[in-house]
Amino acid sequence: MHTLTTLDFLTRLATGVGCGALIGVERQWRARMAGLRTNALVAAGATLFVLYSEAVGDATSPTRVASYVVSGIGFLGGGVILRDGAGVRGLNTAATLWCSAAVGVLAASGHLDLALLGTLTVLAVHLVLRPAGRLLDRAPASGTDPDATVRATVHLRCDRRSESHVRALLLQALAGSGLAPTGLRARREREDTASLRATVAITGDVAAALEQVVSRLSLEPGIQDLHWHLEEEPDRTEQEALA
């Protein structure tokens, strides 16, 4: 029966921690939630658990411990997955933590070369497939670029006596959504009605940004009409006027 020496223990542990740290460097550079220390600690923990089973001398114990590590790391990965509106963030980070644990298990089992190959594979996935994924995302059927900046206009009609208050609410709602108006016009249509028109430049999901503004203002009692349209769609205003 092979006895785990102190040198073997330190070599495997150093390999596991080093491979986890290499994976963490890329995550830290990308400013992700789980960075250098987190991935190194996950790899170190997985390595130590399997090394313990190796030190005990039970031939079947390392396999059982590795299966427990696989299931246990799921709870840690679940902590970095967050819901962001209709989408989910943190899936790549959780998967990376899972891979760091797998690299630690390989290192602890004595397959140092395989642990290094696994580390290089994880890094290649992040560094090579990331730009490839962006190229796929930037080729939608409509041919539009999701990173393009577009101009949109928010139209609002309110009671004349509430104009100043509504204008402040509109600017506050735009600022709350991270939008800065490039133009703001106010016009008094009748004795009791005023209209406001705010133009903004938006990069990314236009509908999500502006619908958030509309939802914040729609419940204000002094507002009679509220809608928005893209500047590239001149016919939209005419359609809304006829509605």
UniProtKB/TrEMBL annotation:
Gene3D superfamilies for the chain: 3.30.70.260
Membrane-spanning segments: 36-53, 65-83, 114-132
GO CC, alphabetical: plasma membrane
Keywords: Cell membrane, Membrane, Transmembrane, Transmembrane helix
Subcellular compartments: Cell membrane
Domain (MgtC-like C-terminal) ranges: 154-228
Broad class of the protein's primary localization: membrane
Entry keyword Chloroplast: no
Superkingdom field: Bacteria
Pfam families to which the protein is assigned, alphabetical: MgtC, MgtC_SapB_C
Domain MgtC/SapB/SrpB/YhiD N-terminal: 13-133
InterPro entries: MgtC-like_C, MgtC/SapB/SrpB/YhiD_fam, MgtC_SapB_SrpB_YhiD_N
Membrane-topology annotation of the record: Multi-pass membrane protein
Family stated for the protein in its record: Belongs to the MgtC/SapB family.
Name of the protein described by the UniProt record: Putative Mg2+ transporter-C (MgtC) family protein
Organism from which the protein derives: Kitasatospora viridis
